[in-house]
From TrEMBL:
UniProt lineage: Bacteria, Bacillati, Bacillota, Clostridia, Eubacteriales
Cited Gene3D superfamilies: P-loop containing nucleotide triphosphate hydrolases
PROSITE patterns according to UniProt: HELICASE_CTER
GO-annotated biological processes: DNA repair
Listed GO MF terms: DNA helicase activity; hydrolase activity
Name under which the protein is recorded: Transcription-repair coupling factor
Entry keyword set: ATP-binding, Helicase, Hydrolase, Nucleotide-binding
Domain named Helicase C-terminal: residues: 22-141
Annotated Pfam families: Helicase_C
Domain of life, per lineage: Bacteria
Entries under InterPro entries matching the protein: Helicase_C-like, P-loop_NTPase, RecG/Mfd
Amino acid sequence: HMSLTGARDISVIETPPEERYPIQTYVVEQNDQLVRDAILREVNRSGQVYYVYNRVESIEGMAKYISELVPECKVGIIHGQMTERQLEKEMVSFMNREYDILVCTTIIETGIDIPNVNTMIIHDSDKMGLSQLYQLRGRVG
């Protein structure tokens, strides 16, 4: 608004920050070895991973499955049916690197950026809308 009245100039950022790479997106069929490799590649370079699984009723089972798939990693869980206090506790734990992988619902669409999270795996991405996927994609990188 202020730029339209002439009180401020409009700034356009045309280049990403240094050492920021473009986000790479892959759409593949479920493949345990590929999921394991992607997680370990990120964790081995001191990063963290979001594993988006959008079914609250079975998210605990998915977290157990991921724990068994990558037993060398610590797994946390967040979803929208948790209390605000639980959510905050789990997010702080993830930010403090107590977990390598956060199995979560789309609750992470909005919120704080965690610079260590550079890999996101979305389970059943075909069941989500394009704008939702785009919003999620913006949480990494």
